[in-house]
Amino acid sequence: MEEFADFKKYKWFYTLSEKLIIAGKSSEQNDSMLKKVKSLKKEFIIMHTSSPGSPFSVILSNIEKVNKDDIEECAVFTACFSRAWKSGKKKASVDIFSSNQLRKSNEMKSGTWGVIGKVKRLIVPLLLTLTIQDSTMRAVPEKSIKNKKEILLKICPGKISKEDFITKLAVEIGEKFSQTEILSALPAGGIKISR
């Protein structure tokens, strides 16, 4: 989608069916991303955790082509990059709605949007898999990976800081990635290697 040719400035990954999902890294980025999505005058699936403190995630695909797995993968990604991970939770609740349901008034602070109408809700595990997508390290839902040989490591919320995790990661998978690339792939908060 050429409107989001700069997708790598967001949090992003590809689902198993190769749908691109992007999510805001900050309240300002959430705002600009959703304004851009609304300006396209097309309907997209959007997600946010049921509790505050999460990115808005958008499945950048024609809504009719989005399948159940795409929705589940996007929900896991949204939950893992939310405050729930930082809090060390095992699961989180994610709200699923359409871009047509989003409303923004001038009184709403940056990153806050209203949702009108029915919202679907999905409870998902906080579990990600490190892999390579588009020549970049990504932390994605395990379901998004076709070939299990592409799994570098499975992670979940834990007590190891991201900075300490980089050293552990180098031992586990070899030093092929820059610190910046690894840090940008990981959720905020502690990490644990999941076996």
Descriptive account of the structure:
With 195 residues, this protein is of the alpha+beta class. It has two domains: 124 residues, no CATH class; 67 residues, no CATH class. Helix content is 25%, strand content 30%. The chain contains five helices and twelve strands. The chain has a six-stranded antiparallel beta sheet with strand order 1-2-4-3-5-8. It has a four-stranded antiparallel beta sheet with strand order 10-9-11-12. It has a two-stranded antiparallel sheet with strand order 6-7. The longest helix is centred in the first third of the chain and has 13 residues. The radius of gyration is 16 Å and the shape is globular. The model has no long low-confidence stretch (mean pLDDT 92).
Number of helices: 5
Distance between the termini: 36 Å
Largest sheet, spatial ordering of strands: 1-2-4-3-5-8
**Uncertain residue ranges:** none
Helix content: 25-40%
Portion in strands: 25-35%
In terms of quaternary structure, the protein is single chain
Mean pLDDT: 92
What composes the largest sheet?
A: 6 strands, antiparallel
Integer count of domains: 2
Order of helices and strands: EEHEEHHEEEEEEEHHE
User: What coarse outline follows from CA principal-axis ratios?
Assistant: globular
Structural Rg: 16 Å
Secondary-structure class? alpha+beta
How many E-type strands? 12
